[in-house]
Every structure is written in structure tokens, then in C-alpha cells.
Design a protein that fits this description.
The protein is an alpha/beta fold. The chain has five helices and seven strands; from the N terminus they run H-E-H-E-E-E-H-E-H-H-E-E.
């Protein structure tokens, strides 16, 4: 493998001489008024999902890019971030949710599965057998079997919202929703609503 040498360090915050991690994190938290992470499928027919979620929750998408005095793209008015993965499965989005919370803070995670999804066209056994026969590798232990495909939309959304809720990287204050999206009618149907429990006020704070 050949590599061309480039000086990309100029674009990495942590490579700068005056790097201050806490200050940099604080600056990021002010750059985007993020509220909602939406996890959905990379199927081009599902492209309307983030806008539909924004309308459902009163969010802003796609928003506007904000430039600084030098004309550099420095921020955005969007309150929705997209995590686009095969089938919209939560297992692929866990790290992204953790990072989004760390840098910006979030209020909602919305997982959306859509009609006629390619993830419903195969089974876990089918893709494992195909890889064994076509590529001569065993992927049976590569991913959790119940996150590989979609056999039933309600079950997959219940599983994925539970997986997201139980992840240590998902803050307890975050609401987790599961929706079904009809790619033809562009309608969202709420399947799971897991709202965060209100914080209990301590006696010491009264």
C-alpha cells in the first residue's frame, strides 16, 4: 500500500500548539445547537427521514452553515445530526451517540427503520453462509446476530431502542424513540417511546 505524504495536522485541533481539550470541547458545544441524533438506513430512498423527524420533534434540519469573519465554515444552526448505517441498526450508531453527547450534548436519539428495507431481504444465517461460501471467511462471531438483519420491524425497533438505552454511552437524560418510515408516503409512525425519567431533586438542593 502506497501513502502520499500530506500535512493534515494543520486541520486537527489536538495537533495545535495551543491545544486545550476542555476549551476546545466548550467551543464545540457552542457551535451547533444539537438536540437530536437520528439513526437511519443508507438506502437513498430513505433520504427524507431526518427532515421528517425534525418536523415530528420540532427540530431544525438541515439548517444553515454559519461562517466566521474569515469566511470559514465554523458552525451550523441544525439541531439534528444524522447517523446513516445499513438498516438503521443501533449497533452501528452507539459510538456516534457517545461522541455527539460529549461534544455537543443531546436530548433525543431517534432510531428509524423503513419500509422495503434491504435489511429484510436476508437472514443472519443467510449472510453468514454467503460469506463462508463466497469469501471463505467466518463472520458468525463478527456481529451480534440480532443486529445483523431485520426480520420484524416492531421487534427490531424494540431491540434497538433497548440497546441504545442500555448503552453506557447514552446519557440517562436522553429520550429514545423508535419510528417506522414509509418510503412511499413519507410518513413516520412511532413504535417505541422511551422517555427519560425526570431527575429527582435531592434534599440537599431544596
Amino acid at each position: 500500500m502506497n501513502h502520499t505524504t500530506h500535512n493534515f495536522d494543520a486541520y486537527a485541533f489536538s495537533k495545535q500548539a495551543d491545544y486545550d481539550e476542555a476549551a476546545t470541547r466548550g467551543a464545540f458545544s457552542q457551535a451547533v445547537p444539537l438536540k437530536t441524533v437520528v439513526v437511519y438506513c443508507f438506502d437513498p430512498r430513505a433520504v427524507g427521514i431526518p427532515a421528517a423527524v425534525a418536523k415530528e420533534l420540532g427540530d431544525v434540519f438541515p439548517g444553515d452553515i454559519v461562517t466566521d469573519e474569515a469566511g470559514n465554515k465554523a458552525a451550523s444552526t441544525a439541531t439534528v445530526f444524522e447517523v446513516v448505517v445499513a438498516g438503521g441498526r443501533a449497533v452501528d450508531a452507539l459510538r456516534s451517540v457517545t461522541v455527539a453527547q460529549h461534544l455537543f450534548g443531546i436530548e433525543n436519539v431517534v432510531i428509524v427503520h423503513h419500509s422495503h428495507c434491504g435489511a429484510t431481504s436476508f437472514t443472519a444465517d443467510g449472510i453468514i453462509d454467503a460469506y463462508r461460501n463466497e469469501h471463505e471467511v467466518d463472520i458468525s462471531d463478527l456481529y451480534p446476530r440480532d443486529s445483523i438483519c431485520i426480520g420484524d420491524y416492531v421487534s427490531s425497533l424494540e431491540h434497538d431502542t433497548r440497546l441504545m438505552r442500555e448503552s453506557l454511552g447514552t446519557p440517562r437524560h436522553v429520550n429514545v424513540f423508535g419510528y417506522f418510515y414509509d418510503i412511499d408516503s413519507e410518513q413516520l409512525t412511532k413504535v417505541v417511546e422511551d422517555r427519560a425519567e425526570p431527575a429527582v431533586e435531592s434534599i440537599a438542593s431544596k
